[in-house]
Amino acid sequence: MMTDTQTLINIIKKDINQLNQCNIDELKAAWKALLKRRQFLHIKVFIIRDIAHFLQSQSCGVLDKKVEHLFATAQLQYRNQHQLESNHKKLLSSSGTTTTQLPSQKTKPKVSNQLTDGTVLKRYFNGRWYEVLVKVDNNKTQFIFNDEVYNSLSRIACHITGTHCLGIYWEGT
Fold first, then answer.
1. Model confidence at 9, in pLDDT bands (50, 70, 90)?
2. Is residue 91 within 8 Å of residue 118, measured between CB atoms?
3. Pick from 60, 82, 107: which residue ends a domain?
């Protein structure tokens, strides 16, 4: 579907489903022309989503801030839940346990300075929730974040923030 950018935009405005027929270069050109942003998205699905959202908001009006916040929160919770499940399965497979149930989030936390196996540390930073799964094996505590195993919270905090800080204070435990 190789056409010039303005023709492509007119086709897309008439039928938004035509976005799926475009190649990545056509989508990037349309994205840049419509949204007038310098930085490109590099994943086709996200470019399509961004263009579709822009065109729909032009024709239907934009969502108010409360609704946008609700959508962003729901999307964040969905992503975090899937990341948590992935981390939990990884933890179970590495420890040899066969159950795939997540620990109940309704149980009351223990009052202790020691982190127990399976504890999930949550932290909101720069508009995003981060979760770290605690793994205790033979009195050695490790932390799983983004499918990577870390030996300290400080390394995770440094990875997230880009600056050195004490992980225990950053995590808020």
1. confident
2. yes
3. 60
Looking at the structure of the chain, the number of domains it has is 2
Question: Quick one: which of 116, 123, 159, 165 has its CA closest to 141?
Answer: 116
Phi-psi category of residue 126: left, alpha or beta, with phi > 0 → left and psi -120 to 50 → alpha: left
Q: Which residue, chain included where needed, has tokens 């799983």? A: 144
Sheet strands (E) in the chain: 120-125, 128-137, 140-145, 148-150
Residue 56 belongs to domain spanning: 5-60
What integer pLDDT is reported at residue 168 of this predicted model? 53
DSSP state of 41: P
- Whether residue 15 sits in one domain with residue 79: no
How many angstroms separate the Cα of 27 from the Cα of each of 5, 39, 58, 80, 122? 9, 13, 18, 29, 36
Contacts of 84 (CB under 8 A, 6+ apart): 102, 120, 131, 133
173 confidence band (pLDDT: 50, 70, 90): very low
Single-letter amino acid code for the residue at 125:
F
List own/partner pairs for 70-77 with CB under 8 A and 24 or more apart: 76/128, 76/129, 77/129
CB atoms within 10 A of CB 73: 11
